[in-house]
């Protein structure tokens, strides 16, 4: 059997798509190459937002050329946003690439690989609009107990630093019934936590004319038996409406955690970014969320050094960070992205100034996050246990997982307690706060869950764990490195 390897770059949407690419290949009879082995088929699921994304791809392709030269029948495929942007120029620059496919036709991969093999010729197929919804394709998920569920693809916004709309197209929404059917099927397989995914998740419904569709979807998830945790990423402040806040507050399994990109705290920079909201509106949303869910953990994305940003503008960003008291933030140094309006803007900020502002922002945000984490010390929290080791120190061995507010918790396990499995839930008391995690060295109880059973099945009898891929980086342990320029999905 031919083996395969999928290399994923960029945002959660690419993580979701890579689960489909693995499902497609396994359905076509390929098996995953053991860690460290040279695969017969290597698939790159690329990102176009990351700085020097191109150099990274061509560097990796360059490394594979000699491997392919000495491994007859090996195939290389390139998909994702960079393939959608660069199209056939990829095979011009790297003629040893066999297949190039885009963001709208990931379902074509197996057929294109076969066509390239039979014709002994590279195949390039890029569509300008969505072929089939990736969610309808077979999948091999990263985790047995946590899953991504895409509710829409594409984006109708036109943020000037972002290339996503030109590569993923205008927003297309899945029917609510299809989303719920997928959620119910996942829960039946043992999944306990789902993350609803979209470039701009809360404009969900715009395509079928229901602007309250996202709030309704959250409430509908509330009635799925066995689904304990519902999260979503990423909302856009412009479309963040009161009905969504009410749905979050009134639906018990919707988690009190919200990731809402700010990008800048300066109205003139937000205008230049074409973000279509201003700082007061953003702060009002934070205020309303906190009024409805006082313990909600709010995180964000911020770009420093956007063209034309003055010291005064930057002070505006620091001021919003002080007021918003984020539990965490993905912070980005602005860098030019070819093909975006911002690339051509005047007043590009000098690198040393960007670096200096970046360091000041990170220092302030870490201080805020630490203060917020210190308020949790002494509280009892419920943690969904993740795969992998927790933070150890000389005296204590810890496991780790995510609390309901998505904070990372490392918890100590008394020697006499049987270790919980990934997917099980533990109750622990927080004893220490750091800027980016909590330690909980007072142990409460373990609740063994169907998700823990599903994880155990996926370890003991992988064949009996449909849709689960062992050993992949797990959700909940460490967020995938965010792409620069703020497009973290939305
Ligand atoms: S930053 Fe997000 S909301 Fe803006 S265009 Fe890109 S994907 Fe859409």
Describe this structure in words.
The protein has 490 residues and is α/β, with parallel strands linked by helices. The protein folds into three domains: 125 residues, Methylthiotransferase, N-terminal domain (Rossmann fold, 3-Layer(aba) Sandwich); 241 residues, tm_1862 like domain (pyruvate-formate lyase- activating enzyme), CATH 3.80.30.20; 69 residues, OB fold (Dihydrolipoamide Acetyltransferase, E2P), CATH 2.40.50.140. 33% of the residues lie in helices and 20% in strands. The strands form five sheets. A seven-stranded mixed sheet has the order 19-20-17-16-15-18-21. The protein has a six-stranded parallel sheet with strand order 2-1-3-4-5-6, with helices on both faces. Strands 7-10-11 form a three-stranded parallel sheet, with helices on both faces. Bound molecules: iron/sulfur cluster.
List keywords for this structure.
pyruvate-formate lyase- activating enzyme, 20% strand, six-stranded parallel beta sheet, S-adenosyl-L-methionine, iron, binds iron/sulfur cluster, OB fold (Dihydrolipoamide Acetyltransferase, E2P), metal-binding, 490 residues, alpha/beta, 3 domains, Rossmann fold, 4 iron, 4 sulfur cluster binding
What's this, in brief?
The chain has helices at 12-27, 53-69, 81-86, 89-93, 109-119, 164-168, 176-188, 213-221, 242-250, 267-273, 279-292, 311-324, 351-374, 450-460, and strands spanning 3-8, 31-32, 41-46, 75-80, 99-101, 123-125, 146-150, 152-153, 172-173, 193-197, 229-233, 257-259, 297-304, 328-333, 380-389, 398-403, 408-412, 425-429, 432-433, 438-440, 442-447. Strand 19 (432-433) and strand 20 (438-440) form a beta hairpin.
